[in-house]
Structures are given as structure tokens and as C-alpha cells.
Amino acid sequence: MTQIPKVVIPAAGLGTRMRPATLAVDKELLTVVDRPIIDYIAMEAALAGVEELVLVCRESRPAVLGYLQARSDAWPGLSRFSVVVQERPLGLGDAVLQSRSVVGAAPFGVMLPDVLLYPPQAGMAALVQAFAGNSLILVNPVPSAQLSAYGIADCDDTREGVLPVRGLVEKPEPDQAPSNLAVTGRYLFTPELFEWLARQGSGHNDEVQLTDAMTRLELGAVRFDGRCYDCGSRAGLVQAVLEYGLRDPQLAPILRTALSTL
Ligand code: G1P
């Protein structure tokens, strides 16, 4: 299995959908049960054999860096954390491009810290296991009402294994979506991605879109059939708390009683 030592974590967003909580604490540090979201992301990265998280932030000493350093012995093999600054909010593609000099010329992962997956070992680790030279994305089926919230992959869902991606559309209207397979926020890229990002202008929403550069790559999709929570939204964060709370042997009976009596 190829080793993927570095994962880029775009963490420069303002968390506007989660105000007022994000006026007090950065989005990546919002709590799911008793751990901040970034802790689950670090655990998922460690399960994939990752050694270093490269945070893309608005400032050089973000609170999330202090948290990861304080917990650095919590994740086997994952003990290095670095920060690159995104000076201006030009979009996800621009955020990833800022990491180019730190990532270098090796394949690397990208994990969006808004998204928590269950089970975590079917996330980044599944991409690392499937990697055979071409870039990969994790996709999961979503209902048609949610298609316009995601990048949607044009690929043949009836096959087993890695699905060749014919195209991608960022946040399509349901009647323009090429499939029901959404990009979940886990990516494994060859460094060629940076070349396309560097020469690309703004796309959807006037931002430099990661999705647009991805359409230039030989790309495969790995299907994820677990559960996916957008913790940048109120509903997603509360559902993630329920998922992890109900999997905690001490909390589960208390939560079930509470839910049945509310
Ligand atoms: C981003 C990506 C989108 C992806 C989504 C996953 O959108 O642009 O392709 O499906 O994350 O959460 P955002 O949620 O940042 O608007």
C-alpha cells in the first residue's frame, strides 16, 4: 500500500452557517460529544497512516493548531502539524493551492473538516488502500433535494471497485446532476492538481473551485456507504452528536431514554 504522509485540511472558513457559536470558537473546534470536530478528523487521518496535517488557516497560530499539538500523542503515527496562511477568501481551490510548497511532489490527501464520516476507517483509509497512481475521491449517494449542496460526480455506479469519473459538476440543480453521487470531502491527489489550480480562474460562486481543477485529472471514485455529517450546518452537527453519542456505551442508554421521553 502506498504511504500518503500528508493531508491538507482547509480550515480558513468563517463558519457563517454556525453563528453565533463560531463567534466564540472556530468551526473545527465545535464539540461532538466530548471532542472537537478536528479530533475526529485527526483520528480518521491516523487510521489512513497519515503522518502530518497541513492546516490552511486565516492566521499563522490558529487555536486549532494549539489543540492538535496538545493532543499529539493521541494518534499513532500522526504527530506533525503545520500551518499555511490563506491571505484572502478565494475559495476551496485557492486554499488547497496555498499548501503546494509544504506538500511538495508526492501524492497527498485533502480532508474537509466540516464533514464527519461514520465509520471513520471507511473514509481516508479507503482512498489510501485503493490508490494505484490516479487521483481519487470518496463519493456517497444523496437524495435529490441535497444534490445542489455538493459536487456531483458523473460515474457509473453499477460497477464494483474504483469507478472511473467522467466529469464533475459543482452544486448542480437536481435536473442538471449527472448522478446522485456526491463528493464527500475526502480526496487523494497527485501533485499535478497544483498545476491546474495555479492556472485556473474563478468558477461557481466567483471562487477558485477545487472541483474545476479536478475535472482535468484522471480521476476515480470510491463509494462510501456509511453516514456523512456536514458539521458546518446545525442539522449535521446535531446528528453527528447523536451518532457518536449513541455509540458511546455510557451515554447510549441515557440518550435513548431522553429521546423517547422528549
Ligand atoms: C465543498 C466542495 C463540494 C463537496 C463538499 C462536501 O463544498 O466544493 O464539491 O461536495 O465540500 O462537503 P462546500 O461544502 O465547501 O460548499
Structure explained in plain terms:
With 262 residues, the protein is α/β, with parallel strands linked by helices. It has a single domain (6-233), classed as Spore Coat Polysaccharide Biosynthesis Protein SpsA, Chain A. Helix content is 29%, strand content 26%. The chain is built from ten helices and 13 strands. It has helices spanning 21-24, 37-47, 63-70, 92-97, 100-103, 124-130, 192-198, 210-214, 234-246, 251-261, and strands at residues 6-10, 31-32, 35-36, 52-57, 80-85, 108-111, 115-118, 135-141, 151-155, 163-170, 181-189, 219-223, 227-230. It has a nine-stranded mixed beta sheet. It has a two-stranded antiparallel sheet with strand order 2-3. The protein is globular, with a radius of gyration of 18 Å. The model has no long low-confidence stretch (mean pLDDT 95). 1-O-phosphono-alpha-D-glucopyranose is lined by residues 92, 112, 114-115, 150-151, 170, 182-185, 210-211, 230.
Q: Which parts are unreliable, with pLDDT below 50 for 5 consecutive residues or more?
A: none
Strand content: 25-35%
- Small-molecule binders: 1-O-phosphono-alpha-D-glucopyranose
Total tally of structural domains:
1
The CATH architecture would be Alpha-Beta Complex
Distance between the termini: 48 Å
- Number of continuous helical runs: 10
